[in-house]
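If your schedule permits, I should be very grateful for your opinion on a structural question. What I wish to show you is a protein chain and, alongside it, a tokenised description of its three-dimensional fold. Would you kindly read the sequence against the tokens and tell me how you understand this chain to fold? Here, with my thanks, is the record as I have it:

===
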Amino acid sequence: MQKKTRAFLKWAGGKYSLVEDISARLNLASKHADTLVEPFVGAGSVFLNTDFKHYILNDINADLINLYNELKSSPDEFISDAKKLFVDLNNHADAYYDYRVQFNQSNDIYERAILFLYMNRHGYNGLCRYNLKGIFNVPFGKYKRPYFPEKEMYFFAEKAQQATFTCLGYDDVFKLVPSNAVIYCDPPYVPLSKTASFTSYAKGGFNLDDQANLANLAEQAAFEQKTPVLISNHDTVWTRKIYSQATLNEIQVKRTISPKGGSRNKVNELMAMYLAPKSPRHK
């Protein structure tokens, strides 16, 4: 297999470690699909490590999508400007919090994109979190020397020429799915416990009604439009119930949200594949 490509953003719940598994399932489900649709693209590991002619990549986080579009349209300029912030002088709490204020007060898309990348690499654990007012509030990360992902950004920018980036609700993305496509959904995961809920990735969150609605949309796409849909999520009684119309496979995954590597436990995840049954051949 070709060498795996890492996303240029740090991302809680990123799918880098699972891309072979996900890619194999997508290819098996739709051998002739030419478009991959991702309603929850995140850092884009699946996009970067699959081989489709075209991609429709969506996320509800406008800062993320703006960053991708800026990088896609002017990679040299963007990478050059972003690199200027990755100096020792800016790897201090005071500088970080000043830039965070600047980001939260800015309405300039380009400036916000540059600062979003800076905060992603200098903020705590690569988290992306906003409060209910839409204010980015991730604290300083205290890294010795934050990595500037120049090589990864150039790779992303080149491959992004095959992609259309959108910032829509997941339900609207399903309305845009072309024929001859396959869909991969990596929604915010159902919490494993009441205290583990992490819903402030984007203003508004993603609740249990959204989880069930996504499962319904997947059923419609697969069984009515004949578009295969793969969804990943935590393996819980609730997810097994809402994905009852899918073929379910359980896989073990290391948790990556914990800052202490030694305390990263393995948890079970579900891969729910929605696939229309093949029509019987007429004799």
